Amino acid sequence: MVRTVRRALRSVFLRLREPDPDDPIPLPRYGPRPWFVTVAAMTALAVVAAGVWYVFFRPPTCGHGVDRIGGECIGVTDGAVHFDPSMKKVDEAIRKENKRVTGLKGGYVTVAFLGALSTTKEHDLTGGRVTREIEGAHIAQMRANRGAADGDKPGIKLVLANEGADQSHWKKVVGRLERMRDAEHLVAVVGMGISTRQTIESARELSAKKIGMVGDVVTGDGFDSAGAALGPPGTGGATRIDGLTRVAVPVRRQVEVLAGYLKPRIKSAVMVVDRKSDDLYSKSLERDFHDLFKDAIKTGGRLPESFSADSPAQPGLPNVFAAVASNLNLCGGDPPDVVLYAGRTIFLPRLLQDFEKCEKHPITVVTGSDAEGIADFPGDAPATVVYTPLTDPDLVAGDSSDPQQQKAFATFLTEAERYYEPFDRSQLRDAWEMMAHDAFLTAAQAVHLARGGEIPSSADVLNFLYNLHETNYVQGAAGRIEMDPDGDPHHPTINVVELRHDGTRKLLYPARGKASSRS
């Protein structure tokens, strides 16, 4: 590149100094003016600098708008880039629908799905469920663009925004989404990742730009418009995050229902806690278990057990869990009635392996909605897991007390198979696909209603999210969705389910809660 520029400039200088006698209009015989030499030199330096930057310093890319950082593809794509090989089919389907939508008359808007859309050996808190999340969002996109969200105008384009496995690149990606508000008419963000500090910081940034959000599986206490997620309860230090809503039931409400069912049936409990500081789902469980099971914990008389990990493959974790199981004294003469597990489900199967070694007493593990990620137990652990699912396809389909919801769920299944051929009903168990579907459908309904089918602004959509109740409720796959003033689900159905080691599930207690508690 440098040689090419040098040759070009040299030929110009030679012609200026020694004009060609065969030229029809020979150049005058005088040297180049100083300004010309300066401009030429600066141009040459700029070309050289650009070449050096491009070759040596420009970040490698995975495709348009997506950089390769530390082995991960980080950025925003319309489906052209695959953040994980398992996402290829759904990416292609999204891109096809996006192409159709952008060609429609009357215009379109963009909704982004934001989250940790890739995994690494060191960081995997999603347990391989992200692809099903994206499938759920795409199915909702297809349904919304065909009238399932109170209209089909304007059309909605779906883009995927990956913050990285540990969400550490959130600022770079959120900045890109903020620029898309004007450049590509982005009006809402869904998904939002999991209950971590990075998620709440992302929400604050998006709120400042008047971009509304609908979380799908974000359950940590305070991950709503009240903005109390990072402050301890009662401190009064919360800063409202306008536009942050969600379709998932907060941890506090889950634990309230668990406590209401279990406390009359147990006497003693002990906690196992994930100490990872930025996992606010686990922190919420720890705090709420301590508050609502304090008498049983006191009777249990044992210190809480703890661990900290980013991945089930983390070296040393098996030794830690072996120590935890030993300290719980489950094989002794006086084990606790329940183990209160305040951690992510991806670590629980490994802990249950150590519970296998005790055959004297059945073990009951109590935890939150993330337990939906367990298909069955490893081996023959003498244990059951009691938890509150975000949703359960069998319970929804079999609830004869709500025929409207049964019909809505049946319609969801039929249209999912129609609009996305690889859809697999058996993959609905862990709830992430249904929750992502419902989060996107909620945003889509706000898009369609905010301006009566005309193109809304992001502020229009943000404001209308709080009107989605009563006659404007959203009929989701998992149930009826209504937003309360803090952006939490109003009147959610919260079931208590028992998961046995053979993979069978039993409904222990159904309950309907009022507006979610704040913490």
TrEMBL record:
The chain crosses the membrane at residues 35-56. Keywords: Membrane, Transmembrane, Transmembrane helix. InterPro entries: Peripla_BP_I (IPR028082). It comes from the Bacteria. This is ABC transporter substrate-binding protein. It comes from Actinomadura violacea.
